[in-house]
Design goal:
8 strands
Length: 234
């Protein structure tokens, strides 16, 4: 079967011709198309605006997570050293060197007096003024290492002008002034070779060990014994 020729096609299916849209139809379609485009653009903008809070919240979550991660990482490290409190940061108070105040106490034996004294001398008072006595030294039984050998010293005591043995603590390094240890505990009156503690109420009770039976009485010994105890400390 042979295909029909063009003339036959023209008879079978005539040319439809040009079908133009009615007047004004092009402008209507154009307006509708522009309106649809504008509505789509506004819809996208609203969707973007509505997403802003969600994006901000997500950003906060990420920041918090990062901070938490940092804290978690630091928790494995050694904790930072605590700042010292005002109390512990202060420098420790320097203890005062043992002086006459620490030595101004009661004593039970001559050994205790000897072991505590800065100076042990035999002599007598030359003069007294304003409660201070100029003491003329006849013999040094004991002196602290490096201390000079005195011939006269200043003593803060009411010592009568008779021979005595004094157990002294340094009261003022600048003036080389001394005080008897424990007040009357450090004063022995001499009568020849006999040494008697000044006060029965403030007296030792023994040479090397205390004797409870001697409480309330003046202790009596010899100058030789006092010298011997001084040599034992040296």
């Amino acid at each position: 079967m042979s295909a029909p020729n063009p003339a036959e096609w023209a008879e079978i299916a005539p040319h439809p011709g040009d079908h133009d849209l009615p007047a004004g139809r092009h402008e209507l379609h154009r307006t509708r198309l522009l309106t649809a485009i504008a509505q789509q653009s506004r819809t996208r903008k609203r969707a973007f605006v509505s997403l802003r809070p969600a994006l901000a919240a997500a950003a906060l979550v990420l920041v918090a997570a990062g901070a938490g991660g940092g804290l978690a990482a630091r928790s494995g490290e050694e904790p930072p050293a605590a700042l010292p409190s005002p109390e512990t940061s202060r420098p420790a108070a320097r203890q005062a060197p043992p002086g006459t105040a620490a030595k101004d106490r009661g004593y039970g034996t001559v050994r205790q007096l000897t072991d505590t004294a800065d100076l042990v001398v035999r002599g007598e008072v030359a003069s007294v003024a304003d409660g201070w006595a100029v003491y003329r030294v006849a013999e040094v039984l004991y002196r602290a290492p490096g201390a000079p050998v005195p011939t006269e010293i200043t003593v803060a005591a009411d010592v009568p002008g008779r021979p005595t043995v004094l157990y002294l603590g340094l009261a003022d390094p600048g003036t080389r002034a001394y005080r008897p240890l424990g007040g009357d505990f450090g004063i022995f009156d001499l009568t020849g070779e006999t040494a008697t503690s000044r006060s029965p109420a403030a007296s030792v009770t023994g040479l090397r060990t205390e004797d409870a039976t001697g409480a309330g009485r003046s202790f009596v010994t010899t100058l030789t014994e006092l010298r011997q105890l001084a040599r034992e400390r040296r």
